[in-house]
Amino acid sequence: MAIAVFIKQLSVGGAEKQSLLLTRELQKHYPAYLVVWSRKIVSPGYQDFIEMNNLNVIFLEGTALHKAFFLWRFFKEKRVSCLFNFLLLNNFVGGLTGRLARVRKIYGGIRNCEIASGKLLWQKIVHNYISHHTIFNNYAGTVTLSKQGFRKDKMLVIHNGIDVDGEIHLRQEALVPVIFTAARFLPQKDYFTALEAIQILKRRGRNFRYVIAGYGLQENEIKAGIEKLEIKDCTEMKIAPDNIKELYRQADIYLSTSLKEGLSNSIMEAMAAALPVVATNVGDNEQLVENGRTGYLVDRKSPVQVADALEKLLDNYQSILQMGGEGFQRLKDKFSTSLFLNRYKALISVCP
After folding, report:
1. With CB atoms 3.0 to 4.6 Å apart as the test, which of 41, 142, 294, 349 could cross-link to 11 if both were Cys?
2. What angle do CA 331, 336, 339 make, to 5 degrees?
């Protein structure tokens, strides 16, 4: 019995990271392959992960038709019995070729609590008629989409997993605390609410630095926003840094102002670094952030709420340490890779 995990590409992102993690864990127990639609973008960090873990990775080549034919032949030759697709292109192409190749169980993947209008109909068709089931990484998405015609009986929820190794990272009180955000520069991440909150904190006379790490379409807009709000002296942008883990460890507070999420990988990484989290109450953020215990949940597009929550933490460094520790333990107890793997193994065990 062979298992295939199918992803569009290996650029930096949550779905890509989870596809690699899933393949690594499945390879320990089954013949498992990561199939990648395009090798156009491969993050250096992910290439290192592939080599370090000796993953079976196959990049598809040629035209879309050639790729689809290769995929069908691959499923037949390897006798793939379970296919796990990530994101819309994979759900559609993987689902159709999997059906033609008689893959016994085809699982689609939805990684957000909302779907853009241009993709909604296609995702609904694939979910209702092509995939045997769809794996959501968040409960919020199942609630929203079931009201929009997605079949409830085909929905499954498996939260993201994360490696939580070793002991908690102990930090000392910083002379200038660092607020940190790691996310792509996209409208969904709503950096402008974060920047307005930073402006409010600066006007209140708080002592801090704000560090942003990411890349994407809105890079120039965010730079312009920093200039316009006159927060350049306390804000630093790091474009596609290769030391992201170290940046988490150097920070004191994590901030996420996303308009929508599934289960946020960046928040999980922050909790793994024992950071308290201030985040918008979207997607399954409430599954990660216990309001008042591991951080604070705020409304979307509410810079004053964000600033107030950050200020509570900045005013009491002991709360930073305590909430960060609580978050680390919660992550370890509820979102470890072993729990993540066991949920996938349970699905594989019922493959006929």
Report:
1. 41
2. 130
Contacts with 309 (C-beta within 8 Å, 6 or more apart), sequence order:
278, 295, 296, 298
Write down the mean pLDDT value for the chain: 94
Q: Residues 274-329: pLDDT tens digits?
A: 999 999 999 999 999 999 999 999 999 999 999 999 999 999 999 999 999 999 99
The single-letter code of the amino acid at 116 is A
Q: Do 60 and 30 contact (CB within 8 A), yes or no?
A: no
Q: What is the DSSP letter of 336?
A: B
Cβ 199 vs Cβ 210: under 8 Å: no
List Cβ neighbours of 150 (8 Å cut-off, separation of 6 or more).
123, 124, 127, 128, 134
pLDDT higher than threshold 70 for residue 352: no
CB neighbours of 91 closer than 8 A, spacing ≥ 6? 85, 108, 109, 123, 126, 127, 130, 131, 134
Pairwise CA distance, residues 37 & 16, whole Å: 12
Domains of the chain: 2-161+336-349 (3.40.50.2000), 178-334 (3.40.50.2000)
